[in-house]
User: Fold Phosphopantetheine adenylyltransferase from Paenibacillus shirakamiensis.
Amino acid sequence: MNEVNLGLRIAVYPGSFDPVTKGHMDIIQRAAKQFDRLVVAISNNTSKNPLFTVEERKTLLEQTTRHLPNVEIDTFQDLLVNYTIQKQAHVVVRGIRSVTDFEYEMQMASTNHKLNSEVETIFMMTNPKYSYLSSSVVKEIAHYQGEVADLVPDEVNEMLKLKYLERNRK
Ligand code: ADP
Assistant:
């Protein structure tokens, strides 16, 4: 979407979402309440060797955010600050789980500030329930057929099962 911004407060929540977890969902739901529109932007970063294709990740996010009318799911390959401005947004939302996240996020936010000081990064603290939760943890458990139903939305749980069945058959 690239229409004229009629004073709407738009934020971008970027990430790999490989796949979306309940930790991401918690940030999405809380951020959606703070802005008129929230764009969840899946980075098409080929260097990360993802489990799910960008299209699969987009479909899963569309399914799991169906109930949130002001949330849009998109993909991007551009520099984040350029993409954010292109979406008529001036805020980037990131989640923080730990001190390790903080150090990495601070470096990213400072770099983005240097590239374009119009773009503000805001941080939301994790819901303590999900402070240990990451897409990598979920993939590790699912890979060994462990139970991830409490960690991801139902649609993701189903897709993970299919994905690993498919992989183990090869
Ligand atoms: P990236 O590869 O860009 O870090 P992720 O999909 O891993 O993408 O994460 C996207 C954002 O969501 C990051 O800001 C990350 O810190 C945040 N995040 C991931 N898991 C959680 C969680 N359990 N609680 C809060 N924030 C989270």
Residues 15-17, 21, 23-24, 27, 94-95, 97, 101, 126, 130, 133-135 surround adenosine-5'-diphosphate (CB under 6 Å). Residues 8-169 form a domain with the Rossmann fold fold (CATH 3.40.50.620).
